[in-house]
Amino acid sequence: MSVQSTRGRRVKAAKQNNLLYLYIAVVVVAMVAVVGLVIFLKRNSNEVKAPMAPVGRTAEGFYYKGNPDAAVKVIAFEDFQCPGCAYFSRNLAPILERDYINTGRVQFIFHELPLTNIHPNAVAAAEAARCAGDQGKFWEMHDQLFNNQSLWAQLSSPLNTFSGYAGIIGINRTTFEACMQAGTHREAILTAAKDAATLGVQATPSFSVNGQLVDSNRLFTAIDAALRAAGR
Q: How far is Cα 198 from Cα 200, in angstroms, rounded to an integer?
């Protein structure tokens, strides 16, 4: 056997080994990414809790939490794909819920305002929340959508992701998917957006505090003023 032939076999074996190592590295990286995503979703899903305050729907069909007879009614005009709305939901809404909603002083009403010109998945997300609401889990899906906004906002089709959230919050996924595919709530959501525009709402998140439109920076000040005006 020639030296050249032996050297050729060694080079070929080395190339095969390098290719094998590359395949193994790719598989390991993919597995780590999947595990990381699962852990991230699980962490966020653990943060989603059922509201402590009374929940229901207004006569107009909007979901609320808090005492329906509260002295102050806060209507939140929000877009599920809006980063500012996600920030409010994760950081300010818990304070609002703890100090005002759970104490019976404020009724908090969620009014959809999908900004479809800049947020292509906003309507689908709003539909997901209402489809979950049909099974009694509107607020749980609301929290899932905002907590995981960065994971679905840029997807070309987020429906499979939303169905996964339906499973996480414990509703029937088949029923949920049928609701989404039928567009059961699409017309109501688009009408809600038109109604918000008629009221003069131009940005999300915006809030109506007993009829006074404010942004998130002035929300708590406006609530306190409305409570004082009501003698509360």
A: 5
209 inside domain: yes
Does some domain include residue 20?
A: no
- What residue has token string 């688009």? 190
Place of tokens 């909603």: 101
Structure tokens at 170: 């414990």
Residue 215 structure tokens: 């942004």
Structure tokens at 85: 């709305």
- Give the global pTM: 0.79
Q: Which two tokens stand for residue 115?
A: 């900004």
Domain enclosing residue 124, as ranges? 47-229
Residue type, 232: R
Q: pLDDT of 60-109, one tens digit each? A: 999 999 999 999 999 999 999 999 999 999 999 999 999 999 999 999 99
Q: Is residue 5 part of a domain?
A: no
Q: Are 106 and 208 in contact (CB under 8 A)?
A: no
Q: Checking DSSP bridges between strand 106-112 and strand 72-78, what pairing results, if any? A: parallel
Contacts of 50 (CB under 8 A, 6+ apart): 139, 140
What's 218's domain CATH number?
Answer: 3.40.30.10
> What is the rounded (10 degree) CA torsion for 38, 44, 50, 55?
-110
